[in-house]
# Entry
Amino acid sequence: MTNVWMRFKLLLKCNRLIFLYTLLCISVANADGKNFRVIHSLYFGGFNFLESVTDFYATKSYYKISTESSTIGALNLVFDWRGIVNSAGKIKESRLIPSNYQSVGRWGEEMWITNLTYNQIGQIISTKVSPLPDVEEIIPLPLNPEIGAVDPLSFISQFVINATARARCKEEVVIFDGRRRYKLKIKEIGVKNFSKSPYNIFTGEALACGLKYIPLGGQRRRTYEPENANNLNIIYLAKPRPSAPRIPVNFSIDTNFGTLVGHLVKIESLGSSFR
# Structure
């Protein structure tokens, strides 16, 4: 039972990557100046165990993002996990400038909260976490870990701008999310054709972008093993419909126990659906 618990706990740690992907969806969607909902279903070993729903609300000057991921079905009775992320800020010249960010994770009766506050140009000026991490259980963080790093939202918005302008994906950046400091390396690795599937609403050609997550501090020693840093995660970008934005239609996340796969199952805009 302990081994199974640790496996699913490690899988759910992948939510940090899931959140990056869903933010990418919504950031691109905002190019049309509309409100969107994006839904992904996640599978492991062919078993649907988690759903991620992201809503984006925007005017010409302001935005609000809300992402909720949770275990579903029978698994929820045994491994009850839920993660909620909220962020709000300004929109200036097609760039998201966050003003506040909150991440709340709950596993059974355990809860983790992270709050980030930003200045007028989108730089982190305040970090509050609860509970405080046990320094003996985590990879040490450098002094002032936000220096030389960007927050997840700033990275996503810039990645979207660059990817849209170049129709390619190639980035290398250091990120600090309030608890963890890590490096992301993204590179273009080709294209893939998706055929009709009951799991995904997309068919056609998608751009494949490889993503590597390299821990630089703050990760839990017992749940993050060194070999994970070498795993290559893949995100596939495409337009699910001609009128839709370019978004992640599929992604895969390597773990020590197998591959977690995410499928786009729905995208809605202003009350209408592309499905």
Q: What stands out?
A: The chain has four helices and 14 strands. Residues 2-273 form one domain.
